[in-house]
Amino acid sequence: MANTMMNVCIGCLILLLSGCCNVTFANQKKDKITFLPGQPKNVGFAQYSGYVTVNKSAGRALFYWLTESPSNSDKNPLVLWLNGGPGCSSVAYGAAEEIGPFHINNDGKTLYLNPYSWNKVANLLFLESPAGVGFSYSNTSSDLLTVGDSRTAEDSYKFLVSWFNRFPQYKYRELYIAGESYAGHYVPQLSQLIYRRNKGIANPVINFKGFMVGNAVTDDYHDYIGTFEYWWTHALISDSTYKSLRDSCLSGSSQHPSITCSKALDASEIEFGNIDPYSIYTRPCNSTGSMRRRLRGRYPWMSRAYDPCTERYSSEYFNLPEVQEAMHANITKVAYPWSTCSDIVGSYWADSPLSMLPIYKELIEAGLRIWVFSGDTDAVVPVTATRYSIDALKLPTVSNWYPWYDKGRVGGWSQVYKGLTFVTVTGAGHEVPLHRPRQAFILFNHFLKNRSMPIH
Asked: How far apart are CA 297 and CA 407, in angstroms?
């Protein structure tokens, strides 16, 4: 810790002597949020938001929102949170309805404090990525039609490098990356990029320690097998449809399903009925009629995001002009409204590797901390899909499958492998912190401390 603080101080001294420190902290001060409309009184933490340019020639800029810890913010680690889609906003989901300190009331205008916010133990950095998602933008319209995994990882890395220059107090601080759903691609790929570029640096500015992903898209083949099995074993589809899915989809790409595979997926959607596949045992938000989704996109069983009524509150709140002004957002005054997910970005996704498992193997070998968690009532990227993907890594077991507890009740199950910890959260859907906020907070605490889940 002493060496870390010395590095930070020396860095600031150099900046100060060069006349750059004043500029750095002026930019940081410009991003500070003094008060959000509808915010509760007596909020005890600092928050910042704004833009970081990641490509000057194209005019690509990514929007971030930092919510610091109410106490020990100068010592607590930094956690970068990414939502998936692809094309969905980390502000709308991760921040506003999952792990952030503020959640939005049903009036779409006022906020309330989340008692299980992860910023109680870490400084949270939410990033809307890639450009075209949320408030993030590009002045080159073709960027929205050609974005994919590779550019998203590169732009996110450039964002971090520039962001640390704007916030030098976080240089050398422990950094973890977390996310869910299609961030099962974003998180490992960005982690790999940081790891590789840190190689050979004795004390890297980006002090990356590990990552955690939930209900994560991981491997096409195993995701397919596990998803179809989940649908069938949870009585969502018929025997004949299950057989059709297995016969017609497993031999092809989920990015470009065959005609027969598409027909089987359509049959599955009809057999599902009016349920929320992201949380199969909770009531869907029905006030505007049927919530049955058109299953589409990169993974044919995935629509863009979990869509309870809470998503509507984000759409209302973040489109308020006074909110955008307070957050230093929408500075280019775009002609279209802010949305929770970008259909353009999601529909034109350009590159997506079939599997993240080779990256897992590389980063496990590197000794990084890796946790994978799964809500067990999600039919979109279900627990069975995750288990098949983990099994394919063929890791030695350190601790066999066991129940973990919260106040004497089973909170889920866990298995510890050499280099990876897997945790389930019982009764949680696709967005684990939304459905089981207390259990998700316990999970996050144990991840940060790298301790096995509680056994009583």
From this structure: 41
HEC letters along 54-71? EECCCCEEEEEEEECCCC
Instruction: Give phi and psi for 176, each to the nearest 5.
Output: -125, 150
Two structure tokens written together for 396: 């030695």
The Cα 114–Cα 96 span in angstroms is 9
Task: Give the residue numbers marked as catalytic.
Answer: 181, 378, 430
What does the alpha-carbon distance between residue 166 and residue 24 come to, in Å, rounded to a whole number?
A: 5
Closest residue by Cα to residue 68 from 22, 104, 117, 127? 117
The per-residue pLDDT for range 351-410, each reduced to its tens digit, is 999 999 999 999 999 999 999 999 999 999 999 999 999 999 999 999 999 999 999 999
Report residue 25 as tokens: 């902290």
The length of the chain, given as a count of residues: 456
Helices (H), 127-182: 143-146, 149-166
For residue 21, what pLDDT band results from cuts at 50, 70 and 90?
low
* Tokens of residue 301, six digits: 């069983």
Under DSSP, the state recorded for 7 is H
Q: Which whole-number Å values give the CA distances from 190 to 75, 156, 357, 409, in the listed order?
A: 24, 7, 14, 36
Q: Give CB contacts under 8 A, 24+ apart, made by 43-47.
A: 43/101, 43/113, 44/70, 44/71, 45/69, 45/70, 45/73, 45/101, 45/119, 46/73
pLDDT digits (tens, 9 = 90+) for 37-94: 999 988 999 999 999 999 999 999 999 999 999 999 999 999 999 999 999 999 999 9
Report whether the peptide linkage leading into residue 188 is cis, meaning its omega lies within 30 degrees of zero.
no
Determine which helix (DSSP H) or strand (DSSP E) holds 102, and give its type and residue range: strand 102-104
